[in-house]
Amino acid sequence: MRYGEWVEVRRDADTGVAELVLDRVPAMNAVSTAMARGIAEACAALAAAPAREVRAVVLSSTHERAFCVGADLKERNALSDAELGRQRPLARAAYTGVLTLPVPVIAAVHGYALGGGFELALSCDLIVADPTAVVGLPEVTVGVIPGGGGTQLLPRRVGAARAAELVFTGRRVAAQEALSLGLIDRLTGEGEDRTEALALASRIAANSPVGLRAAKRALRSGFGLDLPTGLEVEDAAWRTVAFSGDRAEGVAAFNEKRTPDWPGE
After folding, report:
1. What class of enzyme is it (predicted)?
2. Which of 24, 60, 166, 252 is placed for a possible disulfide with 6 were both Cys, Cβ 3.0 to 4.6 Å?
3. What is the predicted pLDDT for the residue at 82?
4. Of 116, 117, 148, 264, which is the active-site residue?
5. Is the residue at 263 inside a domain?
6. Any catalytic annotation for residue 252?
């Protein structure tokens, strides 16, 4: 199903894996106002889907040489200050939509993932990239700052000092260095980022839908809290699954030595 002209969602009913596809090829997936609206709407639909039907999401690109080059600066150049201000909530909705998806999300990155494009990847739980990937947050080189979560998400990945160096210089980082710095999580063979991301998503999606959502909630909500508070967050998530149909099915399947048929409740 398409959301606007440049965003598509593909869903595999057998595995529970959904793919959110960036498909603005002529502009290397530059995020325009219309594309931001499509991302936000697609994420809202995925978030509202039953747990059993959507268990993991892959964020991918149809462009051969780019994941996403960031904000559409040609469009931005034509906007007045007032128009830019009105666009801001929609842009935030796109990035927040990816960040707050309740299921595990994997970015499949090749080619350029710069500025807002890299922020889309950072909004995912895992980043799988091929050797052509080039990532970075160059916003200060054009007079702005990362505004899609980059100043908050990057330090959580690589630490405050390393994030500061990357944001303040705006430099681009090639795939191998990105892996060593922790900017990406897995480096594939060339052209294999999407295939490997989908395979990883399928492996994840084989697990309890309720358990996956609760685990993500505990990981995201507990990060940065003091340990006692974080453990309370974990306990609340545990209680969500402990009395669920998924827990009952998982324990029964284990004892009966069979594959679980998760109710997703």
Report:
1. lyase
2. 24
3. 96
4. 116
5. no
6. no
